[in-house]
Design goal:
The protein is of the alpha/beta class and 466 residues long. It is built from 19 helices and 15 strands. The protein has 2 domains: 173 residues, Rossmann fold, CATH 3.40.50; 190 residues, Glycogen Phosphorylase B (Rossmann fold), CATH 3.40.50. 37% of the residues are buried.
Length: 466
């Protein structure tokens, strides 16, 4: 206990800041989830920028190995105090926020699936209220922004147009509004998400900091044969856990109708991922996953890897000829896309992801590379897939354009560049607390509660009487 108190005392300084997020264990380099890797990159890049200052990092992270822990790791204090789908450990977040009473800045990295089910997620504003009572400045990073779950009804196992879906939609939008009221800044990863969120949060409160792109050293000596493929195989890589909204079923159906080979290259589809931790065990998801595995087994040219260890992720990107993102809807900035760009791989995105072009750095890189939207954003159809494969194999001009784009965007979204924006936000944000603004927010909050309750009641009555 004395050791714990000593560590808390050591890091309880006004110059420090708190990060709430999943975080890699001491045995992992970058973590086995998208959020843990993202947080690791954010914290590491900020740590370098803070090297000549007195500021330090405190991580309130997820429990690993089934137990709470407090330890120092590379000059960072790691407090493992919460776990998914459990309310009690979340009280520890408030407890440690209280113990670190001198630390006023909190960066809260949020993905819905990270902290648990819907009941746990909607309780997050209660934690934010406690933080405000403890006089914390909250910087809330929303990694997903979707304001209408109709496009995700199959992913969630809900009936389109149902009362339940309508109620969840209203609760979700009320969640965004509440987060906006309680946070000093809300961070999103693309301009598309700022536009969506601005319906519930004032524009001045929303900060766009794009998903960073890691600089990697490509191992040109790594061969396809190392993973059981042949040298002349053309590998289409779909990376990430299997989920309905990622369109895995769509690309399998299209792939099944493609020729076995093109330009003397044998076509192979690799789905590099396993079950979604957030969805596993749910009846509708198990049915979907079983359908995917059945489709895979029916075609020997399709591989489903299952969950990949951290050291194997880069291997699959190394051997990929084309990275595909056949998403059915745009809810977050894709970590797998950032990987594809890191490895300078040709990629295709479904037209559902066209919102990327609303981000100035993305669209500017697109224009500078002389790419057209039709070169990258496609319908997931046989003709469009054929054209994309043909371009990669036989169109040198196209490949050079894509390579130019990846170089341009990597420079703009390099973690070192983005860390400056986090640094300025956390340590130079001079936004002061204004009584008038706070009162206005409170009135807006009250109004929004009334409107939300009315909309829920309207949805219920509409479904009863129609």
């Amino acid at each position: 206990m004395k050791r714990v108190n000593d560590l808390i005392s050591k890091y309880n300084k006004t110059d420090n800041y708190i990060v709430i997020s999943e975080f890699p264990s001491q045995m992992e380099l970058n973590g086995n989830t998208g959020l843990s890797r993202y947080s690791q990159n954010t914290i590491s890049s900020l740590k370098k920028r803070l090297a000549n200052s007195n500021a330090g990092t405190i991580i309130l992270g997820n429990i690993v190995n089934g137990r709470e822990e407090i330890y120092e790791q590379n000059g960072i204090l790691v407090v493992r105090c919460f776990k998914r789908n459990s309310f009690r450990p979340f009280l520890k977040l408030i407890y440690f926020a209280y113990r670190f009473n001198k630390v006023k800045k909190v960066l809260f990295e949020f993905e819905f699936a990270t902290y648990g089910n819907e009941k746990v997620s909607v309780s997050i504003p209660l934690i934010l209220i406690a933080f405000k009572l403890l006089r914390k400045k909250i910087y809330f990073a929303l990694h997903q922004v979707v304001t209408d779950l109709t496009s995700l009804h199959s992913h969630l196992g809900l009936t389109k147009g149902s009362v339940k879906l309508s109620i969840i939609n209203h609760v979700l939008n009320f969640f965004y509004f509440t987060v906006g009221v309680l946070s000093d800044k809300v961070i999103v990863l693309e301009d598309e998400f700022k536009q969506r969120l601005s319906k519930f949060v004032h524009n001045n409160k929303i900060e766009v900091i794009p998903h960073g792109i890691e600089k990697v050293k490509s191992n040109t000596n790594y061969k396809k044969e190392n993973l059981g493929f042949k040298k002349n195989d053309f590998i289409i890589l779909v990376f990430g856990y299997v989920a309905w909204y990622k369109g895995v079923d769509s690309i399998i159906r299209v792939f099944n109708k493609l020729p076995k080979s093109m330009y003397d290259r044998n076509l192979k589809l690799v789905i590099a991922g396993g079950k979604s931790a957030a969805q596993e065990g749910k009846k509708h998801y198990e049915l979907y996953y079983n359908k995917i595995t059945a489709l895979v087994k029916a075609n020997k040219n399709i591989t489903l890897t299952g969950f990949l260890k951290e050291e194997d992720i880069e291997k699959y990107y190394q051997i990929a000829d084309l990275c595909a993102f056949p998403y059915k809807t745009f809810i977050s900035s894709s970590g797998p896309l950032s990987f594809a760009i890191s490895f300078k791989k040709p990629f295709i995105l479904s037209k559902n992801l066209i919102g990327y072009l609303k981000s100035p750095d993305f669209s500017q890189s697109f224009d500078e590379a002389k790419l057209m939207a039709k070169d990258v954003f496609i319908d997931v159809t046989i003709s469009h897939m054929k054209r994309a494969i043909s371009d990669v194999i036989s169109n040198d001009i196209y490949v050079k354009k894509v390579n130019s784009f990846t170089n341009l965007l990597t420079r703009k979204r390099d973690w070192k560049t983005l860390s400056a924006r986090y640094y300025n936000l956390l340590f130079f944000d001079q936004q002061s607390f204004q009584i008038g603004l706070a009162f206005k927010n409170l009135l807006n909050y009250r109004t929004y509660v009334i409107i939300s309750v009315f909309n829920i009641f309207k949805s219920i009555t509409r479904n009863i009487f129609t």
